Amino acid sequence: MNFTKCIRLAACLLLMVGMTYAAKGGKKRMSIDKMIMDAAPDAQMFDVFHVMPEGDLKIMTEYDMLLTLDQYKKMRGPKTKGKSSVRSRTRRSTGGGRRGSSYPGFSRRQKRKADSDSSLLWPDCTVYYEVDKSFLPEDVNTVELAIAEWERFTCLNFEPSKFAQSRLQFKNGAGCYSMLGRQPEPQTVALAPGCRTKGIIAHEIGHAIGWYHEHMRPDRDNYISINFDAIPMRFHVNFDKYTTDIINDYGVEYDYTSLMHYGNDALPGSITALDPSFQDKMGQREGLTFKDIKLANLMYECASFMKCELKQCNFGGFQLYKAHKTALACECWCDSGDVSDPLVLCSELDSAPPQPSIRPTETPVVDLCYDVRDDCQMLKDKGYCMSKLAFMMDICKQTCGLCSTGSSGGREVCMDHDKGCEMMAAAGLCVTLEPVMQRQCPASCDLCSSPPDPCEIQKNVMASLDYIPNGIPRSAGVSLLPVVVSIAVATLSLA
Question: Which residues of 402-419 are buried (b: 16+ CB within 10 A; e: fewer)?
Fold first, then answer.
């Protein structure tokens, strides 16, 4: 009898666990980087070089930041000796950037994940925006929720406008992405259907107000380890940290849980937290953390702008310019440690919140034979494993059977990793953007000891000599490659 009761109790518990599991979607909560990766209908959206419909060249970096070539050169081009690292603390700007320049405001910049070039900040803390009329009411509501997250904790005021020269335009796109900081003309915040969540939209707004990603800080190696061996070659340039002349941390400590920090889901094994307790907390998409909020308030000088009598806050706190909860305006607020309710009055604390505990951490051993996206079978069915070999080698290695038996995972193959490589090389970028081009476009930049041969590539990356692609004998499959494998320059509309 007791045994029967135990069985029934166990069955009830299993049922409850199963219901809870199903209620949460039946799987681990996806990190923001994976959501951004999966939201793009075409994985080639993550190529570095894009020729826009208007004919101008744009750079897609770190999955979701769309930059001008001039911006990207200043970030990633060869460093010149004696380069100035002047740090401007001016917050309010009424100008549109450097006169006579098509790419305003990128001559001097520093940030934590925040750019302190004043021309990229929104004057008087006012961000103008409009939402595309094609958005459904629920999509518009989600955009408003993301905006409310920023207005709740910062002095930024978002004003609807269809006529402001500088304004955000939330619209459908080929993925989730934003321009960096305020631009002198209307700027797209692209939101494909898979991007229309509060967390992702708030993340993209972060870029639009001048923020980069947290895991790209120059001090990131003190907190995380980047395992480039686990990252496909075409994505390597997206993990090169910024230098101190790009980043200003405003005295705000590194934040594993920042809304601007990627997780480990898109590229398994790519980011290891040196405090293991934060490994599964990276990539959260609930909302702004305490350190996010503190940075935005310091960056836009909210307390001063809103006429607070400035005071020193204990325990790493900051002054919030407005009333919050039951407290009056201009009080000192500290880190609660809870993303859902990130602020606690510093006066209620006896000591500073605990900081990350950094310790020697081994880089996890990961299986390098995996697919980056969930649509690899569909791409294989379209014949991409053959016709877009270099692309599929980075994106759908497992599905296409392109896993090398060697330890380098096929990295010994010298080939281009971007559809725009030939055009970029012809434009002279092999020199002016050397640090990126030598890895992204080695073939087009003549860095290979010999031109890449499709047949040799196929031999080097196939999982075994017995592999039969799509049921075609190996000899027949290889004979097709010279016909179907080519490096072509194509345009891709991101708008």
Answer: bbbeeeebbbebebbbbb
Q: Which tens digits make up the pLDDT trace of 37-87? A: 999 999 989 999 988 877 888 999 999 999 988 889 888 877 644 333 222
Residues 264 and 385 in one domain: no
Active site residue 204: yes
Residue with tokens 């014949």: 383
Q: DSSP string covering 126-151, please?
A: EEEEEE-TTS-HHHHHHHHHHHHHHH
The CA–CA distances, whole Å, from 427 to 143, 420, 437, 487 equal 39, 11, 12, 16
pTM for this one? Answer: 0.81
How far apart, in whole angstroms, are the C-alpha atoms of residue 449 and residue 412? 12
CATH number of the domain to which 155 belongs? 3.40.390.10
Give Cα 311 to chain centroid, integer Å: 35
Sign of the Cα pseudo-torsion (95, 98, 99, 104, in order): negative
Instruction: Say which of 62, 149, 204, 214 is annotated catalytic.
Output: 204
What is the span of the domain harbouring residue 401? 376-413+452-484
Would you say 203 is a known binding-site residue?
Answer: yes
Task: State the Rg of the chain over Cα.
Answer: 24
DSSP state of 401: T
In a domain? residue 199: yes
Q: Quickly tell me which residue has 């020729």 as its tokens.
A: 51
**pLDDT tens by residue, 348-366:** 999 998 889 988 877 777 7
Residue 361 and residue 405 in one domain? no
